[in-house]
Amino acid sequence: LVQDGERDIVLVGLGTGTAEDWRRAAGTAAGISSQTRAGSVAVCLGRGVDGRLEAAVEGFTLASYRFDKYRSDRDEAYGGPETLTLAGSDLGTAGARERLKNTRSLCEATVSARDLINEMSSVKTPSFLAATAKRLGRKTDLTCTVWQGDKLEREKMNGILRVSAGSDEPGAFIKLVYRPKRKPRAKVALVGKGITFDSGGLSLKTAKYMEWMKQDMSGAAAVLGTMEAIAALKPPVEVRGYIAAAENMPGSGAQKPGDIITYRNGKTAEVLNTDAEGRLVLADALCVASEERPDCIIDLATLTGACMVALGTDVAGVMGNNPRLIAKLIKSGERSGDRLWELPLVEDYMSDIRSNTADIQNIGSGYAGTITAALFLRCFVGDTKWAHLDIAGPAFAEKPKPYGPKGGTGFGVRLLVDYIASL
Questions:
Q1: How far is the C-alpha of 299 from the C-alpha of 282, rounded, in Å?
Q2: Which one of 24, 136, 168, 285 has the largest count of C-beta atoms within 10 Å of its C-beta?
Q3: Which residue out of 66, 179, 187, 205 is catalytically annotated?
Q4: Where are the alpha helices (DSSP H) in 156-304?
Q5: Cα gap 107→23, rounded to integer Å
């Protein structure tokens, strides 16, 4: 930081200057502007700004995000600079203006996902998520469908019903559909885990492990954010977003260890641990998604602590039944900054989730928990190309990130939009 009495100049070394370097550099600039309460900020992009423009705007915008809805001093908080000036060659072209517009839409969608994750669970019930999806449908050209109550029973959405049984809040199945005006190049299904609060059910978590369980719907938030972005960007791809929403509580009607769920595809699952509930509701949504015959299914879920043990808090695990789909998602992760690392679907580990009384059980022996969870989900996708993203680590930041504060990150929105744009 260089100060000359009138201006603050931040110099950041970028090394090779990748898109992620530019995001982090712009995020640093946003942090300095907050410290100095700058009224205006200029970012010099230099020559050949293609790619840098989008990255710099993403980094600065996302680093400036704050969730202060419940702070009594929010009126006094610094709201960011009045102007952000981008300096560089070729910024006045129609193409640059279009890229800037699209990047702003992407950032707004990521912020929407962050807001949902950071909202307290007493507000963001499954019905709240359903109402949010309906509002999104009304203000865009997305089609929204919600199943609750008797409709869930008629449609045999028994995973959502059983996980919700211990709560006063009813579960919900939500579908959002974007259709391009012309014949789509591809049809993509996105499935998000929407556990709005996870107490563990009768397999009760400790108080410490419940502290951040408002974030257990981060997969659902990523799907909603992605659908918001898709509605604005209008790619030539049909995109369907599915959300399985429930609150996992230990009420008198709660499911019990040893209960068996029969799914709409005929598979049966024994529940040995009610705290492994995410896969139980995802199975419902995966069944519906596969029935509608998309070209591929991508699900996102804060599914296992084991994935955090393996990959930490910055990288999500990816597994699936199609190497090409996984490779493309990893590339999209590299471009977008939402990084993925592939874990193997070890066929031998299926024996670990074979049940004595049902087809499968919802937990294994304790080893390779991320892989056995993915193998459980695979039972509900049929022969559709499928990838599972375990986002337990990067979905929620317990300390500030290079371009985001503590809290929900919106992980997955930029990744999915990049993947869909590449089709």
A1: 8
A2: 285
A3: 205
A4: 158-164, 207-210, 218-233, 278-291
A5: 12
Among candidate residues 23, 175, 279, 335, the one labeled active-site is 279
Q: How far is CA 364 from CA 353, 367, 374, in A?
A: 5, 7, 11
- Tokens 């640059």 sit at which residue? 96
Give every CB contact of residue 278 below 8 A, 6+ residues apart in sequence: 193, 195, 198, 216, 301, 302, 303
Task: Note if 205 is an active site residue.
Answer: yes
Gap between the Cα atoms of 225 and 223, Å rounded: 5
Q: What is the pLDDT of residue 4?
A: 60
CA distance to 67, 230, 392, 404, per residue, from 62 (Å)? 12, 19, 20, 6
Residue whose pair of structure tokens reads 């962050």 in the numeric block: 114
Beta strands per DSSP E along 60-117? 83-88
The pLDDT of residue 74? 75
Distance CA 172, CA 2 (A): 53
Please say if 208 is a catalytic residue.
Answer: no
How many residues comprise the chain?
A: 423
Positions of the chain with pLDDT lower than 70, given as ranges: 1-7, 15-16, 48-50
